[in-house]
Amino acid sequence: MSTDLDRELSSIFSQLTSHINKDSLQSEVKEILLNKRRRQQNELGYMKNLVENIAFITESYKATEELLEKIFAEKIFTPVQTAVENIVGSMQSDIKQAMPRLLPVYSQLIKENKSNQENISFLEMNYSVSKLSQDFTNSFLITMCNPANKSFFANLFNYPPRILVDNIRQQSQFYAAMFCDGVSFG
Questions:
Q1: Can you give the pTM of this predicted structure?
Q2: Is 110 left (phi over 0), alpha (psi -120 to 50) or beta?
Q3: Of 4, 69, 161, 179, whose CB neighbour count within 10 A is largest?
Q4: pLDDT above 70 covers what percent of the chain?
């Protein structure tokens, strides 16, 4: 069962990402990071900003997973995109409010026994893969909301929701890592 699911999801993510130019995407991510770095006065501020962004993206991803699991559990074959966008917006508002509580946990990504440059390199890669993974999962969700794609996604509803969502995460992370492969920051 898992092999069939892997194959189906891999096909979907391959189609969702087929139009993306790896070099262009890497350039966009580098530009985002460069702008974030420029807005900070020093390396510590930049690292703190990256941690905040990683925390927000990661928590948003968890909320998206909950939404996907609900959609698959309740067999909502074509969720209404505006409803999904409203739910995601509400979840993100809740995450912003929870950030003071979340940041101490995510701040552990910065290792005291590493140099600032080593920490920055790690955080930049973590941010990049997390952001792309979230973007790919959002693309999956938005594509699934399109009624014209109902038959394309219909078979996915035959799998247990938790297993399905776990596999979606694995595929989005795989494709994100693949697009970040070979990139150098700084």
A1: 0.91
A2: beta
A3: 179
A4: 98
Helix boundaries (H) for the chain: 2-17, 22-38, 43-73, 81-106, 116-145, 150-153, 161-180
Separation CA 68–CA 11 (nearest Å)? 18
Contacts from 36-45 at CB under 8 Å and sequence distance 24+? 43/116, 43/117, 43/120, 44/116
End-to-end CA distance of the chain: 43
- List pLDDT tens digits, range 78-122: 777 788 888 888 888 999 999 999 999 999 988 888 999 999 999
**135 Cβ neighbours under 8 A, 6+ residues apart:** 176
Half-sphere exposure of 111 (CA within 13 A, CB side): 10
CA gap 183, 162 in Å, rounded: 32
